[in-house]
Amino acid sequence: MIEAGIREFQASGISVERGEVLVPRLISVAGDGVLSCGAAPLVAGSLRRRNCQARLAPVPTLDDPRGHDAIVYLATCRQDDGGVLGIAAVTPPQDKLAAAHARASVEEWATAAGNRTLLAAGSPWCSGAEHAAAACREAAAAHAGSGRTVRLLGPVALPPEVADELAALGALHVSSLADAQPGDVVVIAAHGAAPEIRAAAAERELTIVDATCPVIRRAQDKATRLADRGQHIVLIGQPGAAATGPIASRAAGQVTVVETTAGAASMRVGDARRLSYMVQPGMPVEAAGGIVSALRARFPAAKDTRPAGLCYAASDRAATVRAIAVGSDLVLVLGDPQSPDARQLGAQARDAGAKVAQIATVSDITPAMLTGVTTIGTVESTSAPAVLAAEVIAALAGLGQLSVGRRQVSTEMAGNPA
Question: What was the pLDDT predicted at 349?
């Protein structure tokens, strides 16, 4: 709990420019010892929203009663285990405007302090995407400085820090092999590539690194086998999805992509007795259910794909968001608020009845968001830096005792995923 009021005192040995507010991450105060100020990024965010220049830094010992170099505003929060947290800001003397903003920021976060529970989702990246990211990184690192260009083919979904690392190593994102030179390295991303792309790479004497997701590879192989048996394939998915083209290319002329029940009800086939359907990996299984029903109603002889061949990553992720949302007073969606993935996560959490806030950086959290909130959920979008989730936990822990739990829905299939 927050101890009585905001303490204001002078200190020496601190350099703070006029117009600037220093926000300490640690502060050593006589009688209290060294206090952790985990909420410092939150205080800095409040100051910047007030158009103040805020700087995060440690602060030396503030126990010199003769010091007049700076003014310190400090609130202390005592933990259940007897530890003490600090919420603080430091201004230069005689800067009344900075002092007013510093005191107000400390006060509002002291008011928001309290014990809370945080429910965190796992990584937004499925195992196939993580495998592809690792293959991209390994290829770029192995050939950096070799004179061989590493080309990442097509839309490659990567964590932001991996994309930055690959760019620093000289890897290029390309949509075709038009400019590739003999000896260059081509990385086929998780969604795979059409046979003609592989043939073109071989003809140009390019080295292929195949990072195709195993589930998508099985879907591609299945499409080939069905086409070889003379089956017409209904691919339930989105025509513009990255995995659609590589799968459909394995059965050229024998595939119809359907993404709605209306599409299933209106499609035409030459021989309804030779019809098979499969769900595109990456599409939520639940979203395909209605389409399958419409398809079976129209074509009762249509053959189903094996359940073990389905991809449950999207379904599991949506279920995880719902599980967190129903148990939270507030869900923080981490990452770029404008990214389609972050918007989708926010919509899923709202549909489950949760209040939602989009957070690009930890300093985007405001005291108003936490009013009346005792349980906070966090879900990461694919645009979120890997460190953001940990930064949010550390900052919220600076406001009081924070119990952290993790919820993750995971479907495991047994048997041979043929």
Answer: 97
The amino acid at 375: T
Domain positions in the chain: 7-113, 119-123+313-406, 215-309
94-103 tens-digit pLDDT: 899 999 999 9
Q: How far is 375 from 326, CA to CA, in rounded Å?
A: 10
Question: From residue 92, how far is each of 1, 204, 296 by CA, in Å?
Answer: 29, 66, 74
What tens digit of pLDDT does each residue of 365-407 get? 999 999 999 999 999 999 999 899 999 999 999 999 999 999 9
Cβ-count burial 398-414 (b if 16+ within 10 Å, e if not): bbbbbeeeebebeeeee
Integer Rg of the chain from CA: 28
**Ramachandran area for residue 19 (φ above 0: left; ψ -120 to 50: alpha; else beta):** left
If one compares 78 and 206, the residue with the highest pLDDT of the two is: 206
Residues 34, 40, 46, 48: is their CA dihedral positive or negative? positive
How would residue 1 be classed by pLDDT, with cut points 50, 70 and 90?
low
Alpha helices in 204-312 (DSSP H): 214-228, 244-248, 261-266, 285-298
Do domains 119-123+313-406 and 215-309 share one topology? The answer is yes
- Cβ atoms within 10 Å of 277's Cβ, excluding its own: 24
- The architecture (CATH level 2) of 215-309 comes to 3-Layer(aba) Sandwich (3.40)
User: Hey, which residues does 86 pair with through a beta bridge?
Assistant: 76
Residue written as token pair 């899923």: 348
Write out the two tokens for 243: 């995995």
**What are the phi and psi torsion angles at 197 (to 5°)?**
-70, -45
- Tell me the CATH number for domain 119-123+313-406: 3.40.1010.20
Output the six-digit token pair for 399: 């406001």
